Amino acid sequence: MYALLKQNSPFTYTFLVLLTVVLSIQSVALAQLAPISSGQVVYQYIVTFFKEILHFNSQAFAVLSSVIIFVEALWLNYIALKHKLFQGPHFFTAFSFILISFCNPSNYTFHPLLLSSIILIACLDLLFTARVKEQASKLLFNLGLLLSIACFIQFDFWIIIPFITFCLLILRPFRLKELLLYLSGLLFPLYFSFVFLYCTDQLSFFSKWAVYLPFKFSLEQINNTHLVLIIFGFLIWFVFSLFAVQNSFLKWPVYYRRLWLCFWILLIGGLILSLWDINQKGFSSFIIVVPVLSLLLNYAFLNPQFQKLNNISFYFALLLLLFCQIF
After folding, report:
1. What pLDDT is attached to residue 76?
2. pTM
3. 281/288 Cα distance (integer angstroms)
């Protein structure tokens, strides 16, 4: 299987499809929709639209979530290859994304952070593209616009915006014009919504977002022993990845070192956002860190100097997934 993921063939896509189908069985069997709060108006419209198509079937929403995860995995893999984040063509990024997404079948399979993660992947593509563009005004405006739209789907997404802004300042030289365009993209949907709600005398809508402001953190909804074992497993996977990176880190160009730093910054921001929402969505809130986590852990499979370690990391990841699915 390890060699199969290093090939661009129909068998590789077939393997990823079968992997997604097998791992989604438990999620589909336990499927239920996440409750919608009064402030999630945009998400409520999205759910209502799909309810009309899927006839209020929670299992159908679970299948839709699995399809979204599969598409996100292939998209993230394409972005990693497009921007040459790793050496050579492969599908380990997609494999890591699918594996991490299904490590703990979520009680709420379809939720706003799953949709926000789609926008986060698009933002990563714009962020990496802006690095190589001399004039990136349009890209930065679109980046701000996408981040603002994600906030309308899930208001708590604003927590990760400062981290993305910091990454942007690391990857590009500071230019006031570009920063103002980026901020304009962030504020444009908010300004448009404010004008629309003012004209329709419905400014009270903004008061509904107040329910998201208090920070509440609790692990009561999660089996603590199970969580500790999962974290311990991911830490071992991280050790494999860090070992692979430290052998070649000093040989990397400055840009790739900055990218590595950006991955860690975005991971910290995603973890803060996940812990912020853990009371409302349980373990499913961690879906927002999966894109960046997949890129970080992917190095464990791609160490050219230690092929045996690559195989050990690969099968350890499969065993970790098996443990998470069974227990």
Report:
1. 94
2. 0.85
3. 12
